[in-house]
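Supplementary Methods, section 5.1.

A reviewer requested that the exact input to the structure prediction be made available. We therefore reproduce it here, unchanged from the version used in the analyses.
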Amino acid sequence: MAIMSWGKQNRLHQIIKSDGHTVMLAIDHGYFMGPTHGMEIPARAIRPLLPYIDSLMLSPGILTTSVPATLGGVGWVLRASGGNTVLDPDIDNESLILTAAEAIRLNASAIAVSIYIGAEHQHQTLLNLSTAINDAAQYNLPVLGVTAVGKKMKEKVEKRYLALASRIAAEFGADIVKTYYCDGFEEVVAKTPVPIVVAGGPKLATYRDVLELTYRSIQAGAIGVDMGRNIWQSDYPAAILQGVRAIVHEKASVDQALELVEGLQNDSTRREELYVATAEDVAISSVH
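The structure derived from this sequence is encoded token-by-token as follows.
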């Protein structure tokens, strides 16, 4: 068993807390979606959510423009792959957009790189992950491998595909894998020899759906969740986030967490509606 350096252990501890679990908030959607509904002004959207998260997953430009440098107690996982937009036929044509050295200068806890297994640019994205891992090793910087699916592969969110993609990310040397939940998720976890966090994906219909996804993920062996739209596109972002946190860190049941969420729904936790979301805005924010 390889001995992990103190530096990498410390950075991982900024993401994964002492109970072995993590609540990550994903706000990196703008790197290909632009000003996504609910995250038009990131600094305002995340301000009431920061007390309830362990780490942020975000792009370098949003870190430097929208997160106060004085903020402590929260880890940063910086988006390191990109190069496309929602205007492209698909979103799998990615390259690396951030070096490990620059991530270190930004005091990152880790970097995140997407792979698109089975997509047209699979080979390219796998080489992105390999390059990023080798680059990050010079600085003892953890790498989060993201098993992305894009527009054309949505039907692949199932056990066989996710186990394949997650295992490949781990084989390349990813320290953590971010993937989707599916039926038989325990098998995906068992076949992936590094910790797994579960992506929230597009916005779900109800708060119970969000909490059940969280609960099932933890019960199946995930160390946590990395949710975005299911938090900051909801009517009460701080309320649902605290419900998710209760399940991940406090072993709450779905019913207990839902009761907490319902009790926290008030004017102080209501999302600030800055702009009217059109049908096109909603459709774009559900691309991936």
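Residues 80 and 99 are 7 Å apart (CA to CA). These observations are discussed further in the main text.
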